[in-house]
Specification:
The chain is mainly beta. Among the domains are: about 35-120, Immunoglobulin-like (Sandwich), CATH 2.60.40; about 125-235, Immunoglobulin-like, CATH 2.60.40. It is built from two helices and 18 strands. Strands 1, 2, 3, 4, 5, 6, 7, 10, 11, 15, 17 and 18 form a twelve-stranded mixed beta sheet that branches. A three-stranded antiparallel beta sheet has the order 8-9-16, with no helix packed on it. Strand 1 and strand 2 (about 45-55) form a beta hairpin. The longest helix has 20 residues, at about 1-20. It starts with a helix and ends with a strand. This is DUF4249 domain-containing protein.
Length: about 290
């Protein structure tokens, strides 16, 4: 009888503990709209920005452009100029950003809080390469190459992104994944296992290279390629780097049905709003 009493007491106590751990979670979808700014600076390009209104997750309409804001750009603490609206939420400034310069952007609108963000433009990556011909493909009329790449890392924290395009018979194809790369400095967040690949792995969408633990060194790797390919090595500032990585993670979550995947929020460095204000510098290699 005593044992039965203790058993019942344990069941009641356990039920009480489990019920006390339960919590009702409600999601607020009807948040007020905020300004969303997207602007990436590049020393090789004039400055463009896009300004829209945010929308609720249940809203499937297109983003509403905002054309009546004042967007001011500052360079190294001094006001540089005001971006001109050119329609459909797009703004333009005929100016090429300077590497290693710091830029701050301010967006003012009478109906919304003022947006602020800043970025420092990185230097163009110093990349060398040495191709070695493997074979010629008669049908495709291109050579298969084994290309040895070296990224001469600049001292200080840097992150690089590798992506490619290929031109065949006058048609250019955008590269999605970059396979057959093996190096300890590659971020494995988007690595896929594939036993049919040369190294048993490949990377989805882009390859992220971090210099953590290799600061100021030569980051060397081999990559099988075709003649007619364009390899782009992007040096991204800290904000654009986080934005790209989180965007790829969100896309991977939507494509792969993983039972224990964690939700990912796309990175934003915009104060009082959404979007991204970052910068990058790109070195392109044509094979």
């Amino acid at each position: 009888m005593r044992r039965n009493y203790l058993f019942i007491l344990i069941i009641i106590l356990g039920a009480t503990l489990f019920s006390s751990c339960e919590k009702d979670v409600t999601f607020e979808f009807n948040k007020p709209a905020k300004l969303s700014l997207n602007c990436i600076l590049n020393p090789d390009s004039t400055i463009t920005a896009r300004l829209t209104l945010s929308k609720n997750i249940e809203n499937t309409t297109t983003f509403q452009p905002v054309d009546d804001a004042i967007i001011v750009l500052y360079e190294n603490g001094t006001e540089l100029d005001t971006l001109a609206p050119v329609g459909e939420g797009n703004y333009y400034l005929n100016y090429y950003p300077e590497p290693l310069s710091e830029y701050e952007i301010t967006v003012m609108h009478p109906d919304f809080e003022t947006l602020n963000a800043s970025t420092t433009v990185p230097q163009k990556p110093n990349v060398s390469h040495q191709p070695d011909t493997i074979e010629y493909t008669e049908q495709g009329r291109f050579f298969w190459l084994d290309v040895y790449y070296e990224i001469h890392d600049i001292p200080g924290p840097n992150s690089y992104w590798l992506y490619w395009k290929h031109t065949l018979h006058g048609v250019t194809y955008a590269g999605g994944s970059a396979s057959m790369i093996q190096a300890p400095f590659i971020d494995d967040f988007n690595r896929q296992i594939d036993t049919e690949e040369e190294y048993g792995i490949w990377y989805n969408y882009y390859v992220r290279i971090s210099d953590v633990g290799y600061d100021g060194e030569i980051l060397a790797f081999n990559k099988s390629s075709k003649t007619g390919s364009f390899y782009n090595v992007v040096s991204a500032d800290e904000h654009y780097d986080k934005y790209i990585k989180s965007s790829v993670e969100v896309r991977l979550n939507s494509e792969y049905d993983l039972p224990f995947k964690e939700p990912v929020q796309i990175y934003s460095n915009i104060e009082n709003g959404y979007g991204i204000f970052g910068s990058c510098a790109i070195t392109t290699i044509k094979l």
